[in-house]
Amino acid sequence: MSAEVMRARTYRYTMWLIVLGVIVTVSVVRIVTGAERMTAPGTLRAALIGASPILLAGIGGLWAERAGIVNIGLEGQMLLGTWGAAFFAYHYGPYMGLVGAAFMGLLGGLLHAVATVTFGVDHIISGVAVNIIGLGAVGYLAKTFFDDLEGGGPRNLSGYDTLPNITVPGVSDGALKLAEQEWFVISDVAGAVAALTTRISLLTVLTAALVALTAYVLWRTAFGLRLRSCGENPQAAETLGVNVYRYKYVAVLISGAFAGLGGAYLTMVASSSFSVGQTGGRGYIGLAAMIFGNWRPSGVLAGSLMFGYTDGITLLPNSGPLVHALLLLIAVLLVVFAVIKVRKGERTTGIVLALIAVATLAWYLSTDEVNGSFTGMTPYVITLFVIAVFAQNLRMPAADGKSYRRGEAG
Amino acid sequence: MKRSSIVGAIVPPLVAVLGAMAATSLVIAVSGGSAVDFVATIFSVPNERVLITIINQSAMLSLSAFAAAICFRMGLFNIGVEGQYTVGACAGAFFAGSGLVPGPLNILVTLVVAMLAGAGYALIAALLKVGRGVSEVISAIMLNYIALTMAGYLVARYGETSGYTYVTAEIPPSSQPLGFNLFPNAPGDVWALSTLAVIVGVGYWFLMSRTRFGFDLRATGESTSAALASGVSVGRMVLIVMALSGAVAGLVWMPAFFGSVHSFGPPENFQAGLGFTGLAVALLGRNRTIGIFVGAVLFAFLAGQSNALQQEGIAKEVVDITQGIVVLAVVVAYAVVGRRRAQAEQERVARQLDAEREGVSA
Fold first, then answer.
1. Taking Cα atoms as reference points, which of A369, A271, A384, A287 lies closest to residue A321?
2. Half-sphere exposure of A274 (CA within 13 A, CB side)
3. For residues B191 and B59, is the Cβ–Cβ distance under 8 A?
4. Alpha carbon separation from A136 to A77, A130, A322, B192 (Å, rounded)
């Protein structure tokens, strides 16, 4: 067996160990704090609904950045998607709503692609402009097209059909019963299974499929290899005959369409009505999930689930004690990270982490509840924290965000 | 300034504005509205009330744009102006409302507090960049959201209730400056602190073009390696420039705060979004003092005229599209002009070399 294969196996083995470790830790914290709702099916269902739009935006960002285009315009493309979903779902049914959302997002992506690829404009500037245009366009389009509709207003629309839910018979009931038992680990896993098999939206399933498809296309096909080469070293790709402009265009268009679908998720699954500015910064959180996930699909998934959890539980009634219990979980994880850092020889970082862990623990012990405002900013604080601590471990595509002109290969 | 460079500075933004108007007209026409009404309304003469709004808004926009421009000149992208002015506004409002300092002096000290708060908040992103190599764009996006949430929390926790929302305590009447009453018959004044824009503008011009520090700053923006070679400590520059930018950002909302609102409490008693629009204005004005003022007036003019669009049956949000396209179009126009100029230069040099070679062989 080659060393390469051995290393890949060890890596996979370690990943499973980490997942198992997290589940056990969560279970222990749940029992210690008595916050039984931490892994209840209802909570995890809310988390799943919170995570999916972020995941769609994050995977969208992944497509663009793997081809070397930073897409801050995700937020604007997602906004366009919310309008597209509402408009097309209202007039032509929910499935056309999905198509409409993807199309509107794609238009936003096209704008970004023209500016960054054809004209070589700074990616951040173009992205900021796309966000301004997206917000303005959605406000304008809503007032122009929804004001006179039944169930519509100048800034909102309801009364359209949404997507069907799927329940897996047999599995769902069993898992729900197991989850109620409050057993160590078993009930936590059952809670997750129940959340995944009970009244799960068709779009959630589609999201999962799209993530898997993305991972396959980008890492297992020649097309994906060429696309990623445009993000790593476009000049080299050009010398090998890859049409870099075309790949970048395709990537950014797909990126916009994914973000648009994320918008559709918000108008058709997370709620059953549209309002202007519905994304509430989720495009940016998607970007954060992508960076947190180190520009990899599995990482984006993990990041989205984490952010989706904090996003989802804020919507649950009386979430204060639950958020409070999470403080203990964060403190435990911080201690683990601190130990890892110290063992790697980064003593200062380790000590800082340990100090933050102690502060979090003190916060946990001295209070009974956490103000709802703080849960809202959790994704941002965690991202900032992760980037600050693990900046050296993150590796973005080598030519990400850099301007590329055809025929200027040095 | 050479004639060609004046043309090069004026033509791209002009083309961008016209192009954006055309694109917006197209959007309106496609969605069933009247493009003629749109253009006619936007270019109509604003009434006195709207004129006062335009002056006040352009003051705040230019402050925000100067904050962004300070960083742009050094090649830093301070997308965090939005968060920094939120923090500045929150800190300033709490301080001014407390009435710790009496009378007009309160205004001055509050401005200092707001600047310090903005600078302190900007330093978080700067420290992360210098110390840990974190991109200032990414950290600023996170910090923007944290700022708004924190401000909301603080106002809800330590503020007062006002109807259904929370606000900070109102400024004592003795600390409320009088505005300039331009039109006796029109409601509203030009706020006293709108003059801050002029002061900051002059300061910006002086700093950039008349001081050693400004030279170092621009040099670092042009070439980091050249700046390093000439003894500039780039890390230290990043910290100072971000703090300076944050300090200016802290002032952004102060004209409205002292001029009319008198208390802070998002979403009603606060104007969000000035930071992002300010970035757009800085880009439009190419980070030059005059350019920023012109860009700020243009954006404030568009926003001010947008209310009249409602009477024509056109949603006023349409000017947001115009503003966004202006930004996109202007950077595209500069990119095209820049490339064209570089090409012309290359051709000129090539021709000269050819001529010299022929001269030698003959």
1. A369
2. 38
3. yes
4. 12, 10, 37, 31
Q: What is the Cα–Cα distance from B315 to B331, expressed in whole angstroms? A: 27
Domain ranges of chain A: 11-316+371-390
d(CA A109, CA A113) in angstroms, rounded, equals 6
Q: Which token pair is A325?
A: 């219990």
Distance CA A42, CA A78 (A): 26
User: Quick one: which of A165, A377, A162 has its CA closest to A274?
Assistant: A162
Separation CA A383–CA B135 (nearest Å): 13
Query: How many angstroms separate the CA atoms of B19 and B329, rounded?
Result: 7
Q: Does A133 touch chain B (CB under 8 A)?
A: yes
Provide the residue count of chain B.
Answer: 362
Tell me if A130 and B31 make a contact (CB, 8 A cut-off): no
Which among B200, B224, B251 is positioned nearest to B74, based on CA atoms?
A: B224
Q: How far is B155 from chain A (nearest CA, A)?
A: 11
pTM of structure:
0.91
Give the number of other CB atoms < 10 A from CB of residue A294.
17
Low-confidence ranges of chain A (pLDDT < 50): none
Tell me whether residues B143 and A380 touch, CB distance under 8 A.
yes
Output the DSSP codes for B172-187: PGGG----B-S-TTSS
Q: Which of A83, A122, A130, A380 to mutate to test the interface with B (most CBs of B within 10 A)?
A: A380
pLDDT digits (tens, 9 = 90+) for A348-374: 888 988 999 999 899 888 888 777 777
Query: In order of start, what are the domains of chain B with their CATH numbers?
Result: 11-27+50-337 (1.10.3470)
Distance CA B239, CA B123 (A): 6
pLDDT at A181: 82
Using an 8 Å Cβ cutoff, are A341 and A290 in contact? no
**Is it true that domain A11-316+371-390 has CATH number 3.30.70?**
no
- Tens digit of each residue's pLDDT (9 = 90 or more) over B139-158: 998 899 899 989 998 998 89
CA dihedral A135, A136, A137, A141 (to 10 degrees): 110
Q: Which amino acid is at A373?
A: S
Of the partner residues B134, B157, B320, the one whose CB lies closest to the CB of residue A136: B320
Distance between B84 CA and the closest CA of chain A, angstroms: 16
Angle at A301 between CA A298 and CA A305, to 5 degrees: 145
- How many CB atoms sit inside 10 A of residue B148's CB? 22
- Residue A156 has a pLDDT of 92
Per the CB < 8 A criterion, the answer to whether B96 and B110 are in contact is yes
Q: Is the pLDDT of residue B229 over 80?
A: yes
Decide: residue A234, CB within 10 A, 0-12 exposed, 13-18 middle, 19+ buried: buried
Residue A3 amino acid letter: A
Give me A179's structure tokens: 């989850």
Distance CA B336, CA B146 (A): 38
Name the nearest CA neighbour of A72 among A21, A130, A32: A130
* Partner B, chain A 357-386, Cβ-Cβ below 8 Å: 371, 373-374, 376-377, 380-381, 383-384
Can you give the pLDDT at residue A296?
A: 93
Chain B residues with beta carbon closer than 8 angstroms to that of A111 = 328
ipTM: 0.89
Task: Specify the DSSP element, H or E, that contains A58.
Answer: helix A41-66
CA–CA gap between residue A89 and residue A206 (Å, rounded): 17
Measured CA to CA, the distance from residue B349 to residue B338 in angstroms comes to 17
